[in-house]
């Protein structure tokens, strides 16, 4: 989901009054329509908008400390994840904040409902005409030119000055998420210097088991689950999964399936023609690699805001799945700083409860949508969020090298977290002045790890085909974590939860270091791989046996 950059800001300066309130100030705005969208005209006044108001939480700094305390191996309370109720205590707004916003709603005859258990998100529905007046906005219809999908957005909105310390943001307003999926089809691979016969025809579960030492024995803990995110009308087909298992995992029952959850009007039709390449990939390489680990496919419809709604769904559960893998992403600058931060904080909440959140890093190197007209490197979202794990891609097996499309770099929104400071500093010292000024060297760096992402064999509509993308890599790495969690739970230990402090503190032997390849874009060669961490393949690809040792098994 990559588009061109845009500039965001949150301003505290006053603007002219509107008829509803005389103290409105601009809260967020963007200067330009993002690349890939076309303005159609004013949204129909009678169209009803469902708006969500994010309230400032009372103690996110405290929750961040708690997250690191339970996620850092050297901590005395490592693995003692928080309950939903404990997380909610950090996240819930103060009474002053809640009352101030509810009073404003009441004065405008608005009835709001809570979106989250903590009450940090409130939602309400009003017609466009009222929303324009309430927020001094100009809600307009925009079309995403490559898909034809339409969205109603505004380039700026205002809130009462007295609510600036209470309202973090309103959405959907100035953010323009791009409704695309990154996986792409490729010809059958030709691997040179193949290290095992199981990889000679392409990447399959057997190849991954050989390459990474992934066990074939079936998991035993039914409480341990992997959630697979599904968006943009991508449907996971059970018949294709059965065929996939028969061909590539004949040791597993061919009847093995996933469970289904739907949000925002999402569905999962089983007509062969509806089978989605991305959805099939993600379910086949979790069910087919994480042997016996229950998989839930969460199909999110177009009736809401996918990334937010799936986290809200999980945060509402007392026992959410221990791993969530998502093979979608966006350009960081297409999301406002406020909205990106609020969503990133949702990942913090999930991590504190023991959920490992993984995302594909993106498929455009450093360029963003493979756009060589860019004048600086283009970070992806949410890979820049410090509370999730970003997965890059490799190709080949003798040895593995970086996939040239593997997105990686440095966030413009978040700084370098402590857990990766040493690794990133070492890389920057090696990099020297190369590409100086094209990226934010003080930003959170990604990806964190990598896995195979080219020539991956899947079944779609009964036919075997090869695909590529970091969207292959994320479910593969998620399966490794799911199997480790199964062993940990069987041993009476906690699941891994937020991974990064562990991953960056693990011994080098826990990963196969990738030292060949780069990720070009913006008329440059992009970043190069290096010994240790690099912004193409992260720490490297998994070594299951060494990771078992690192997690205390």
From TrEMBL:
PANTHER family reported in the protein's UniProt record = PEPTIDASE S53 DOMAIN-CONTAINING PROTEIN (PTHR14218:SF10), PROTEASE S8 TRIPEPTIDYL PEPTIDASE I CLN2 (PTHR14218)
The name this protein carries in UniProt is: tripeptidyl-peptidase II
Its biological purpose: Secreted tripeptidyl-peptidase which degrades proteins at acidic pHs and is involved in virulence.
For this protein, the record's Gene3D superfamilies field holds: Peptidase S8/S53 domain (3.40.50.200)
The record, for Pfam families, names:
Peptidase_S8, Pro-kuma_activ
- Give the EC class as a word: hydrolase
Chief location: secreted
Residues of the active site are: 278, 282, 471
Q: Where in the cell is it found?
A: Secreted, Extracellular space
What are this entry's molecular-function GO terms? metal ion binding; serine-type endopeptidase activity; tripeptidyl-peptidase activity
The prosthetic group or cofactor this protein requires is: Ca(2+)
Q: Which reaction does it catalyse?
A: Release of an N-terminal tripeptide from a polypeptide
Q: Give an example GO biological process.
A: proteolysis
Binding sites annotated in the UniProt record for Ca(2+)? 513-514, 532, 534
The record's cofactor note says:
Binds 1 Ca(2+) ion per subunit.
EC nos: 3.4.14.10
Domain named Peptidase S53 is located at 202-553
**What InterPro entries has UniProt attached to this entry?**
Peptidase_S8/S53_dom (IPR000209), Peptidase_S8/S53_dom_sf (IPR036852), S53_propep (IPR015366), Sedolisin_dom (IPR030400), Tripeptidyl-peptidase_I (IPR050819)
Q: Which residues form the signal peptide?
A: 1-17
Q: Which GO terms describe its cellular component?
A: extracellular region
Listed A to Z, the keywords are: Calcium, Glycoprotein, Hydrolase, Metal-binding, Protease, Secreted, Serine protease, Signal, Virulence, Zymogen
């Amino acid at each position: 989901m990559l588009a061109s950059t845009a500039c965001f800001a949150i301003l505290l300066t006053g603007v002219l009054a509107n008829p509803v309130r005389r103290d409105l100030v601009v809260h967020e705005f963007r200067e330009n329509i993002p690349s890939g969208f076309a303005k159609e005209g004013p949204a129909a006044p009678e169209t009803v908008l469902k708006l969500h108001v994010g309230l400032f939480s009372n103690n996110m700094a405290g929750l961040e400390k708690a997250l690191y305390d339970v996620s850092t191996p050297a901590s005395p309370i490592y693995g003692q994840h928080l309950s939903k109720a404990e997380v909610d205590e950090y996240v819930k707004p103060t009474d002053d904040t809640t009352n101030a916003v509810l009073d404003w709603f009441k004065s405008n005859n608005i009835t709001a409902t809570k979106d989250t258990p903590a009450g940090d998100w409130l939602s309400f529905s009003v017609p466009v005409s009222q929303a324009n007046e309430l927020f001094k906005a100009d809600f307009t219809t925009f079309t995403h030119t490559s898909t034809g999908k339409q969205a109603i957005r505004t380039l700026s909105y205002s809130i009462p000055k007295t609510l600036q310390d209470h309202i973090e943001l309103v959405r959907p307003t100035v953010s323009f998420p791009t409704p695309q999926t990154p996986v792409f089809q490729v010809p059958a691979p030709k691997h040179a210097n193949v290290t095992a016969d199981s990889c000679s025809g392409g990447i399959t579960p057997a190849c991954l088991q050989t390459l990474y030492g992934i066990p074939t024995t079936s998991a035993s803990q039914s409480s341990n689950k992997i959630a697979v995110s599904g968006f943009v009308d991508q449907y996971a087909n059970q018949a294709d999964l059965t065929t996939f298992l028969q061909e590539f995992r004949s040791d597993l029952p061919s009847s093995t399936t996933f469970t289904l959850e739907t949000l925002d009007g999402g569905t999962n039709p089983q007509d062969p023609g509806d089978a989605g390449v991305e959805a099939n990939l993600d379910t086949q390489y979790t069910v087919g690699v994480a042997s016996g680990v229950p998989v839930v496919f969460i199909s999110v419809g177009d009736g809401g805001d996918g990334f937010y709604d799936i986290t809200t769904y999980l945060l509402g559960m007392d026992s959410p799945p221990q791993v969530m893998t998502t093979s979608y992403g966006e350009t960081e600058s297409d999301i406002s700083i406020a909205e990106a931060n609020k969503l990133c904080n949702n990942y913090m909440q999930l991590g504190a409860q023991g959920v490992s959140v993984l995302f594909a890093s993106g498929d455009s190197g450093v360029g963003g949508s493979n756009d060589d007209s860019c004048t600086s490197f283009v970070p992806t979202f949410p890979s820049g969020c410090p509370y999730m794990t970003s997965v890059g891609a490799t190709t080949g097996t003798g040895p593995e090298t970086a996939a040239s499309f593997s997105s990686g770099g440095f966030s413009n929104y978040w700084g370098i977290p402590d857990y990766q400071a040493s690794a990133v500093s070492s890389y920057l010292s090696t990099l020297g002045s190369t590409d100086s000024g094209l990226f934010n060297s003080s930003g959170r760096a990604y990806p964190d790890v990598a896995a195979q992402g080219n020539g991956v064999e899947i079944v779609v509509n009964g036919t075997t085909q090869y695909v590529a993308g970091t969207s292959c890599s994320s479910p593969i790495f998620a399966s490794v974590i799911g199997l480790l969690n199964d062993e940990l739970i069987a041993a009476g230990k906690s699941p891994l939860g937020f991974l990064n402090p562990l991953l960056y503190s693990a011994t080098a032997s826990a990963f196969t270091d990738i030292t060949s390849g780069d990720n070009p874009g913006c008329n440059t060669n992009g970043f190069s791989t290096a010994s240790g961490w690099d912004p193409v393949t992260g720490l490297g690809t998994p070594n299951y046996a060494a990771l078992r040792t690192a997690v205390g098994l």
